[in-house]
């Protein structure tokens, strides 16, 4: 999740649906090479290897289950395709916060879901959660305009002006 809007979306959902201390966001997944741990200790090895690890948007835990949660505002397909990989990585992650052997569940949180998304999520064993925030409507409207000829012409003109001014 590199987009600030998705970070906001995740933060709002997690704060609204889980108690403090039962979840974490932006969690690295996958094992840390044993050689690094042996050379530097677990903490420093995790820091060194951090850029190489995949990250899941959020995790939440209870005594009965461990949730792997991905958030997608625009492209749920990306979340559907990432979650099975994240599950495999989580099974090999020694430093998951709050993990004590609970069974994993994969969750995908989206503002709305088309029928094919519901079917694919169900077929993949992914729990689909729909979570709407009012600010998403303005973002979607803005994003849809991004591909219009008018918007592209305005962007091209801004770029031309920036280049003429030497700021690009």
Q: Short description, anyone?
A:
This is Endonuclease. With 168 residues, this protein is an alpha/beta fold.
Tally of domains: 2
Structural class: alpha/beta
Instruction: Give the second-level CATH assignment, the architecture of the largest domain.
Output: 3-Layer(aba) Sandwich
The CATH topology assignment of the largest domain is: Trna Endonuclease, Chain: A, domain 1
Query: What is the count of helical runs?
Result: 7
Query: Which percent bin holds the helix content?
Result: 40-55%
The major sheet is characterized as: 5 strands, mixed
User: Which radius of gyration do the C-alpha atoms yield?
Assistant: 20 Å
Strand order of the largest sheet: 1-2-3-4-5
Principal-axes geometry comes out as: globular
Strand residues, percent: 15-25%
- What is the H/E order? HEHHEEHEHEHH
Task: Report the uncertain regions.
Answer: none
CATH class of the largest domain: Alpha Beta
- State the end-to-end distance: 27 Å
Secondary structure: number of strands: 5
Query: What number is the mean pLDDT?
Result: 92
């Amino acid at each position: 999740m590199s987009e600030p809007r998705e970070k906001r979306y995740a933060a709002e959902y997690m704060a609204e649906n889980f108690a403090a201390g039962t979840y974490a966001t932006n969690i690295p997944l996958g094992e840390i090479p044993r050689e690094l741990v042996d050379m530097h200790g677990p903490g420093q090895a995790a820091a060194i290897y951090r850029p190489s690890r995949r990250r899941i948007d959020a995790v939440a835990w209870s005594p009965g289950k461990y949730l792997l949660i991905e958030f997608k505002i625009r492209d749920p397909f990306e979340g559907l395709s990432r979650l099975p990989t994240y599950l495999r990585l989580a099974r090999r992650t020694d430093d998951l916060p709050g993990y004590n052997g609970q069974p994993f569940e994969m969750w995908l949180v989206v503002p709305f879901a088309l029928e094919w998304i519901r079917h694919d999520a169900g077929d993949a064993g992914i729990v689909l959660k729909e979570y709407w925030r009012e600010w998403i409507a303005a973002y979607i409207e803005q994003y849809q305009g991004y591909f219009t000829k008018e918007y592209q012409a305005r962007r091209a003109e801004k770029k031309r002006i920036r280049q003429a001014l030497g700021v690009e």
